[in-house]
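Hello,

Our lab assistant flagged a job as stuck in the queue for most of the afternoon. It eventually completed. Since we weren't sure the result was trustworthy after the delay, we are filing this so someone can double-check. Below is the sequence as submitted and the structure that was eventually returned. Let us know if re-running is recommended.
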Amino acid sequence: MQHAENCFILRQAPHDNFFTTTFFLAIKGFLMKLSEFNYHLPKDLIAQHPLSSRDNSRLMILDRKNSSINHNTFSNFPDYFYKGDLLVLNNTKVFPAKLIGKKKNTGGKVEILLTQETEPGIWKAMIKSSGKLKENTEITFSLSGFSAVIVGKDKSNLSDEEYRAQRLIQFDSEESAKKILDKVGLIPLPPYIKRNQGKPSSTLDKERYQTVYASKIGAIAAPTAGLHFTEDILNRLKKKGVEIAEVTLHVGAGTFKPVKTEFIEQHSMDPEYFEIDAPSAKKIKKAVSEKRRIIGAGTTSSRTIESIDIEGDTVNPLRGRTDLFIYPGFNFRFVNALLTNFHLPGSTLLMLVYAFAGKNLAQKAYREAIEKKYRFYSYGDAMLIL
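-- returned structure --
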Protein backbone atom coordinates (compact mmCIF):
# COMPACT_ATOMS: atom_id res chain seq x y z
CA MET A 1 0.00 0.00 0.00
CA GLN A 2 1.36 3.37 -0.97
CA HIS A 3 1.70 6.24 1.42
CA ALA A 4 0.30 9.66 0.71
CA GLU A 5 2.11 12.95 0.73
CA ASN A 6 2.73 15.17 3.77
CA CYS A 7 -0.47 15.93 5.67
CA PHE A 8 -2.26 12.68 4.87
CA ILE A 9 -1.47 9.00 5.27
CA LEU A 10 -3.49 6.11 3.89
CA ARG A 11 -5.36 3.96 6.36
CA GLN A 12 -6.19 0.31 5.95
CA ALA A 13 -8.54 -2.03 7.76
CA PRO A 14 -6.48 -3.97 10.29
CA HIS A 15 -5.18 -7.29 8.99
CA ASP A 16 -2.06 -7.68 11.11
CA ASN A 17 -1.77 -11.19 12.48
CA PHE A 18 -5.26 -11.82 11.14
CA PHE A 19 -4.96 -15.54 10.64
CA THR A 20 -3.33 -15.87 14.04
CA THR A 21 -6.37 -14.40 15.77
CA THR A 22 -9.17 -15.61 13.49
CA PHE A 23 -9.48 -18.97 15.19
CA PHE A 24 -9.81 -17.47 18.65
CA LEU A 25 -12.24 -14.76 17.52
CA ALA A 26 -14.40 -17.32 15.77
CA ILE A 27 -14.59 -19.41 18.93
CA LYS A 28 -15.70 -16.36 20.90
CA GLY A 29 -18.29 -15.47 18.26
CA PHE A 30 -16.75 -12.11 17.40
CA LEU A 31 -16.39 -12.67 13.65
CA MET A 32 -19.27 -11.68 11.38
CA LYS A 33 -20.61 -14.09 8.82
CA LEU A 34 -21.40 -13.01 5.29
CA SER A 35 -24.92 -14.39 5.77
CA GLU A 36 -25.61 -11.60 8.29
CA PHE A 37 -25.61 -9.12 5.41
CA ASN A 38 -28.08 -10.89 3.16
CA TYR A 39 -31.70 -9.91 2.58
CA HIS A 40 -34.39 -10.77 0.05
CA LEU A 41 -35.20 -8.09 -2.51
CA PRO A 42 -38.12 -8.46 -4.94
CA LYS A 43 -36.77 -8.01 -8.45
CA ASP A 44 -39.37 -5.40 -9.32
CA LEU A 45 -37.75 -3.01 -6.81
CA ILE A 46 -34.48 -2.89 -8.77
CA ALA A 47 -34.61 0.44 -10.61
CA GLN A 48 -34.03 -0.09 -14.33
CA HIS A 49 -34.21 3.55 -15.40
CA PRO A 50 -33.65 6.95 -13.79
CA LEU A 51 -36.62 9.10 -12.81
CA SER A 52 -37.61 12.05 -14.97
CA SER A 53 -35.77 14.41 -12.61
CA ARG A 54 -32.75 13.55 -10.49
CA ASP A 55 -34.18 15.06 -7.30
CA ASN A 56 -37.57 13.33 -7.62
CA SER A 57 -36.11 10.30 -5.87
CA ARG A 58 -37.34 9.39 -2.41
CA LEU A 59 -35.14 10.11 0.58
CA MET A 60 -35.21 7.97 3.71
CA ILE A 61 -33.90 9.74 6.82
CA LEU A 62 -32.24 7.68 9.56
CA ASP A 63 -31.57 9.40 12.89
CA ARG A 64 -29.04 7.38 14.85
CA LYS A 65 -29.66 9.26 18.11
CA ASN A 66 -33.25 8.10 18.48
CA SER A 67 -33.25 5.22 15.96
CA SER A 68 -36.05 6.88 14.00
CA ILE A 69 -36.87 6.55 10.31
CA ASN A 70 -38.63 9.24 8.31
CA HIS A 71 -39.45 9.73 4.65
CA ASN A 72 -39.02 12.66 2.30
CA THR A 73 -37.93 13.43 -1.26
CA PHE A 74 -34.44 14.41 -2.38
CA SER A 75 -35.68 17.82 -3.48
CA ASN A 76 -35.81 18.64 0.26
CA PHE A 77 -32.28 17.36 0.91
CA PRO A 78 -30.92 20.87 1.78
CA ASP A 79 -33.39 21.09 4.69
CA TYR A 80 -31.15 18.75 6.69
CA PHE A 81 -28.08 21.00 6.45
CA TYR A 82 -26.79 23.89 8.53
CA LYS A 83 -24.41 26.76 7.92
CA GLY A 84 -20.84 25.53 8.31
CA ASP A 85 -21.53 21.93 7.30
CA LEU A 86 -19.02 20.41 4.88
CA LEU A 87 -20.43 18.22 2.10
CA VAL A 88 -17.86 15.99 0.38
CA LEU A 89 -18.55 14.92 -3.21
CA ASN A 90 -16.74 12.39 -5.39
CA ASN A 91 -16.14 14.09 -8.77
CA THR A 92 -15.01 10.97 -10.63
CA LYS A 93 -16.40 10.58 -14.15
CA VAL A 94 -17.44 7.29 -15.74
CA PHE A 95 -15.77 6.54 -19.06
CA PRO A 96 -17.18 4.23 -21.80
CA ALA A 97 -15.18 1.26 -20.52
CA LYS A 98 -17.18 -1.56 -22.09
CA LEU A 99 -16.28 -2.83 -25.57
CA ILE A 100 -17.85 -5.49 -27.77
CA GLY A 101 -15.45 -7.12 -30.23
CA LYS A 102 -14.73 -10.32 -32.13
CA LYS A 103 -11.84 -12.74 -32.24
CA LYS A 104 -10.14 -12.11 -35.54
CA ASN A 105 -9.42 -15.80 -36.23
CA THR A 106 -12.85 -17.27 -35.32
CA GLY A 107 -15.33 -14.39 -35.22
CA GLY A 108 -16.34 -15.37 -31.68
CA LYS A 109 -17.91 -12.62 -29.58
CA VAL A 110 -15.79 -10.94 -26.89
CA GLU A 111 -17.06 -8.60 -24.15
CA ILE A 112 -14.40 -6.40 -22.56
CA LEU A 113 -14.60 -4.23 -19.46
CA LEU A 114 -11.49 -2.07 -19.14
CA THR A 115 -10.62 -1.50 -15.48
CA GLN A 116 -7.21 0.18 -15.30
CA GLU A 117 -4.56 1.47 -17.67
CA THR A 118 -1.24 0.08 -16.44
CA GLU A 119 0.87 1.88 -19.04
CA PRO A 120 0.07 3.75 -22.27
CA GLY A 121 -2.06 1.50 -24.48
CA ILE A 122 -2.09 -1.46 -22.04
CA TRP A 123 -5.12 -2.11 -19.82
CA LYS A 124 -6.27 -4.55 -17.21
CA ALA A 125 -9.62 -5.88 -18.42
CA MET A 126 -12.30 -8.32 -17.35
CA ILE A 127 -13.16 -10.35 -20.41
CA LYS A 128 -16.02 -12.67 -21.27
CA SER A 129 -15.73 -14.64 -24.48
CA SER A 130 -17.17 -17.55 -26.40
CA GLY A 131 -14.66 -20.33 -25.83
CA LYS A 132 -11.14 -20.01 -24.49
CA LEU A 133 -9.25 -16.78 -24.87
CA LYS A 134 -5.57 -17.47 -25.48
CA GLU A 135 -2.63 -15.15 -25.21
CA ASN A 136 -1.88 -13.24 -28.47
CA THR A 137 -5.51 -13.50 -29.56
CA GLU A 138 -6.32 -10.47 -31.71
CA ILE A 139 -9.65 -8.75 -31.15
CA THR A 140 -11.24 -6.53 -33.77
CA PHE A 141 -13.89 -3.87 -33.29
CA SER A 142 -16.60 -2.38 -35.48
CA LEU A 143 -14.40 0.68 -35.88
CA SER A 144 -12.45 -0.16 -39.00
CA GLY A 145 -8.69 -0.40 -38.70
CA PHE A 146 -8.50 -0.71 -34.91
CA SER A 147 -7.76 -3.81 -32.90
CA ALA A 148 -6.26 -5.07 -29.64
CA VAL A 149 -4.27 -8.12 -28.53
CA ILE A 150 -4.46 -10.23 -25.38
CA VAL A 151 -0.93 -10.02 -23.96
CA GLY A 152 -1.28 -11.88 -20.67
CA LYS A 153 -3.30 -12.71 -17.58
CA ASP A 154 -3.77 -10.74 -14.41
CA LYS A 155 -5.55 -12.77 -11.74
CA SER A 156 -4.93 -10.35 -8.89
CA ASN A 157 -8.33 -8.70 -9.14
CA LEU A 158 -10.86 -11.40 -9.98
CA SER A 159 -14.22 -9.72 -9.62
CA ASP A 160 -17.70 -10.10 -11.07
CA GLU A 161 -18.48 -13.76 -11.67
CA GLU A 162 -19.83 -12.78 -15.08
CA TYR A 163 -16.22 -12.48 -16.20
CA ARG A 164 -13.87 -15.44 -16.35
CA ALA A 165 -10.55 -13.78 -15.59
CA GLN A 166 -8.76 -10.51 -15.65
CA ARG A 167 -6.41 -10.12 -18.60
CA LEU A 168 -3.98 -7.60 -19.94
CA ILE A 169 -5.00 -6.19 -23.30
CA GLN A 170 -2.83 -4.04 -25.54
CA PHE A 171 -4.11 -1.54 -28.11
CA ASP A 172 -1.99 -0.25 -30.98
CA SER A 173 -1.33 2.89 -28.98
CA GLU A 174 -2.77 5.05 -26.23
CA GLU A 175 -4.34 7.18 -28.95
CA SER A 176 -6.00 4.22 -30.67
CA ALA A 177 -7.49 3.06 -27.35
CA LYS A 178 -8.99 6.51 -26.84
CA LYS A 179 -10.47 6.53 -30.35
CA ILE A 180 -11.99 3.08 -29.90
CA LEU A 181 -13.57 4.08 -26.59
CA ASP A 182 -14.86 7.37 -27.97
CA LYS A 183 -16.41 5.72 -31.03
CA VAL A 184 -17.70 2.33 -29.87
CA GLY A 185 -17.23 2.25 -26.08
CA LEU A 186 -20.38 1.61 -24.03
CA ILE A 187 -21.36 3.00 -20.64
CA PRO A 188 -20.55 0.14 -18.21
CA LEU A 189 -23.94 -0.16 -16.53
CA PRO A 190 -24.19 -2.71 -13.70
CA PRO A 191 -25.44 -6.16 -14.79
CA TYR A 192 -28.72 -5.75 -12.85
CA ILE A 193 -29.67 -2.86 -15.19
CA LYS A 194 -30.91 -4.63 -18.30
CA ARG A 195 -30.08 -3.16 -21.69
CA ASN A 196 -29.60 -4.55 -25.21
CA GLN A 197 -26.02 -5.81 -25.18
CA GLY A 198 -23.86 -4.42 -27.95
CA LYS A 199 -26.28 -1.63 -28.78
CA PRO A 200 -25.12 1.99 -28.43
CA SER A 201 -25.61 3.41 -24.94
CA SER A 202 -28.78 5.47 -24.77
CA THR A 203 -28.54 9.23 -24.55
CA LEU A 204 -30.37 9.02 -21.23
CA ASP A 205 -27.85 6.57 -19.70
CA LYS A 206 -24.91 8.63 -20.97
CA GLU A 207 -26.32 11.66 -19.18
CA ARG A 208 -27.90 10.17 -16.07
CA TYR A 209 -25.31 7.51 -15.15
CA GLN A 210 -23.04 10.45 -14.38
CA THR A 211 -23.19 13.08 -11.64
CA VAL A 212 -23.75 16.72 -12.62
CA TYR A 213 -20.35 17.56 -11.07
CA ALA A 214 -18.35 14.71 -12.66
CA SER A 215 -15.04 16.07 -13.98
CA LYS A 216 -12.19 13.57 -13.47
CA ILE A 217 -12.39 10.70 -15.97
CA GLY A 218 -11.46 7.27 -14.64
CA ALA A 219 -14.39 5.35 -13.09
CA ILE A 220 -16.07 2.21 -14.40
CA ALA A 221 -19.12 2.84 -12.21
CA ALA A 222 -20.85 5.98 -11.01
CA PRO A 223 -20.76 7.12 -7.37
CA THR A 224 -24.50 6.55 -7.26
CA ALA A 225 -25.39 8.65 -4.19
CA GLY A 226 -24.32 11.64 -6.26
CA LEU A 227 -26.77 10.90 -9.08
CA HIS A 228 -29.58 12.63 -7.13
CA PHE A 229 -27.93 16.06 -7.11
CA THR A 230 -29.00 18.86 -9.44
CA GLU A 231 -27.40 22.26 -9.93
CA ASP A 232 -30.37 23.73 -8.07
CA ILE A 233 -29.77 21.47 -5.05
CA LEU A 234 -26.09 22.43 -4.97
CA ASN A 235 -26.90 26.14 -5.24
CA ARG A 236 -29.44 25.93 -2.42
CA LEU A 237 -26.86 24.23 -0.20
CA LYS A 238 -24.31 26.95 -0.93
CA LYS A 239 -26.87 29.68 -0.15
CA LYS A 240 -27.40 28.07 3.26
CA GLY A 241 -23.70 28.41 3.98
CA VAL A 242 -22.84 24.77 3.34
CA GLU A 243 -19.24 24.31 2.19
CA ILE A 244 -18.50 21.80 -0.56
CA ALA A 245 -15.26 19.87 -1.04
CA GLU A 246 -14.58 17.59 -3.99
CA VAL A 247 -12.45 14.46 -3.82
CA THR A 248 -11.77 11.87 -6.50
CA LEU A 249 -11.99 8.12 -6.08
CA HIS A 250 -12.11 6.27 -9.38
CA VAL A 251 -14.66 3.56 -8.71
CA GLY A 252 -13.13 0.33 -9.98
CA ALA A 253 -13.60 -3.40 -9.76
CA GLY A 254 -12.55 -3.32 -6.12
CA THR A 255 -15.74 -1.63 -4.97
CA PHE A 256 -17.84 -4.43 -6.44
CA LYS A 257 -15.54 -7.36 -5.76
CA PRO A 258 -17.88 -9.96 -4.27
CA VAL A 259 -17.24 -11.15 -0.73
CA LYS A 260 -16.71 -14.91 -0.97
CA THR A 261 -15.30 -15.64 2.47
CA GLU A 262 -17.46 -17.11 5.23
CA PHE A 263 -16.32 -14.40 7.63
CA ILE A 264 -16.29 -10.88 6.21
CA GLU A 265 -13.11 -9.97 8.09
CA GLN A 266 -11.23 -12.33 5.75
CA HIS A 267 -12.20 -10.25 2.70
CA SER A 268 -9.74 -7.78 1.20
CA MET A 269 -10.49 -4.81 -1.03
CA ASP A 270 -8.63 -4.18 -4.27
CA PRO A 271 -6.81 -0.82 -4.24
CA GLU A 272 -8.55 2.09 -5.99
CA TYR A 273 -6.95 5.34 -7.08
CA PHE A 274 -7.92 8.53 -5.27
CA GLU A 275 -6.77 12.12 -5.06
CA ILE A 276 -7.61 15.21 -3.02
CA ASP A 277 -6.44 18.59 -4.26
CA ALA A 278 -4.99 21.18 -1.90
CA PRO A 279 -8.14 23.36 -1.58
CA SER A 280 -10.31 20.36 -0.67
CA ALA A 281 -7.67 19.00 1.71
CA LYS A 282 -7.60 22.38 3.42
CA LYS A 283 -11.41 22.44 3.75
CA ILE A 284 -11.49 18.97 5.27
CA LYS A 285 -8.69 19.71 7.71
CA LYS A 286 -10.30 23.01 8.76
CA ALA A 287 -13.72 21.40 9.29
CA VAL A 288 -12.17 18.69 11.45
CA SER A 289 -10.21 21.18 13.55
CA GLU A 290 -13.33 23.33 14.05
CA LYS A 291 -15.45 20.25 14.84
CA ARG A 292 -17.92 21.08 12.09
CA ARG A 293 -20.16 18.40 10.64
CA ILE A 294 -18.78 16.49 7.62
CA ILE A 295 -21.28 14.74 5.34
CA GLY A 296 -20.02 12.10 2.93
CA ALA A 297 -22.03 12.01 -0.30
CA GLY A 298 -21.74 8.29 -0.91
CA THR A 299 -19.65 5.37 0.25
CA THR A 300 -16.75 6.28 -2.06
CA SER A 301 -16.45 9.84 -0.73
CA SER A 302 -16.62 8.50 2.81
CA ARG A 303 -13.98 5.82 2.20
CA THR A 304 -11.69 8.46 0.70
CA ILE A 305 -12.02 10.73 3.73
CA GLU A 306 -11.62 7.88 6.20
CA SER A 307 -8.52 6.62 4.35
CA ILE A 308 -6.47 9.63 5.41
CA ASP A 309 -4.81 10.94 8.54
CA ILE A 310 -4.31 14.63 9.10
CA GLU A 311 -0.85 15.61 10.23
CA GLY A 312 1.26 18.75 10.42
CA ASP A 313 0.47 22.36 9.63
CA THR A 314 0.88 22.30 5.85
CA VAL A 315 -1.82 21.25 3.43
CA ASN A 316 -0.75 19.66 0.16
CA PRO A 317 -2.53 17.74 -2.58
CA LEU A 318 -2.80 14.02 -2.01
CA ARG A 319 -2.95 11.05 -4.35
CA GLY A 320 -2.51 7.33 -3.92
CA ARG A 321 -4.49 4.09 -3.67
CA THR A 322 -6.75 2.96 -0.89
CA ASP A 323 -7.92 -0.54 -0.01
CA LEU A 324 -9.81 0.50 3.11
CA PHE A 325 -12.56 -1.99 3.93
CA ILE A 326 -15.19 -0.54 6.28
CA TYR A 327 -17.41 -2.98 8.13
CA PRO A 328 -19.19 -2.99 11.55
CA GLY A 329 -16.81 -2.08 14.32
CA PHE A 330 -14.98 0.51 12.24
CA ASN A 331 -14.31 3.81 14.00
CA PHE A 332 -15.42 6.72 11.80
CA ARG A 333 -13.15 9.64 12.65
CA PHE A 334 -14.27 12.28 10.16
CA VAL A 335 -17.64 11.44 8.58
CA ASN A 336 -20.57 12.57 10.74
CA ALA A 337 -23.43 11.94 8.29
CA LEU A 338 -23.75 9.74 5.23
CA LEU A 339 -25.81 9.95 2.04
CA THR A 340 -26.09 6.64 0.26
CA ASN A 341 -28.26 4.51 -2.02
CA PHE A 342 -29.75 1.09 -1.21
CA HIS A 343 -27.13 -1.58 -1.91
CA LEU A 344 -26.87 -5.21 -2.96
CA PRO A 345 -27.10 -7.97 -0.35
CA GLY A 346 -23.69 -9.11 0.89
CA SER A 347 -21.84 -6.20 -0.70
CA THR A 348 -19.02 -4.22 0.92
CA LEU A 349 -21.16 -1.12 0.32
CA LEU A 350 -23.92 -2.55 2.52
CA MET A 351 -21.34 -3.45 5.17
CA LEU A 352 -20.20 0.18 5.26
CA VAL A 353 -23.82 1.28 5.79
CA TYR A 354 -24.20 -1.24 8.64
CA ALA A 355 -20.99 0.10 10.15
CA PHE A 356 -22.21 3.70 10.05
CA ALA A 357 -25.90 3.31 10.93
CA GLY A 358 -25.60 0.31 13.22
CA LYS A 359 -26.79 -3.16 12.26
CA ASN A 360 -30.24 -3.01 13.88
CA LEU A 361 -31.20 0.39 12.46
CA ALA A 362 -29.86 -0.48 9.00
CA GLN A 363 -31.79 -3.75 8.89
CA LYS A 364 -34.94 -1.98 10.06
CA ALA A 365 -34.46 0.67 7.34
CA TYR A 366 -34.04 -1.93 4.58
CA ARG A 367 -37.14 -3.82 5.73
CA GLU A 368 -39.14 -0.59 5.70
CA ALA A 369 -37.76 0.40 2.29
CA ILE A 370 -38.94 -2.91 0.84
CA GLU A 371 -42.36 -2.59 2.51
CA LYS A 372 -42.78 0.95 1.15
CA LYS A 373 -41.45 -0.09 -2.27
CA TYR A 374 -38.41 2.13 -2.45
CA ARG A 375 -36.37 1.82 -5.64
CA PHE A 376 -33.04 0.02 -5.12
CA TYR A 377 -29.47 0.16 -6.43
CA SER A 378 -27.81 2.59 -8.86
CA TYR A 379 -30.87 4.33 -10.31
CA GLY A 380 -32.78 3.91 -7.06
CA ASP A 381 -33.71 6.09 -4.09
CA ALA A 382 -31.46 7.53 -1.39
CA MET A 383 -30.90 7.28 2.34
CA LEU A 384 -29.48 10.01 4.60
CA ILE A 385 -28.01 8.75 7.86
CA LEU A 386 -27.67 11.46 10.52
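-- support follow-up --
The delay was a queue issue, not a problem with the job. The result is valid. Confidence is low (pLDDT under 50) at residues 1-21, 157-164. The chain has two domains: 18-94+207-385, 98-185.
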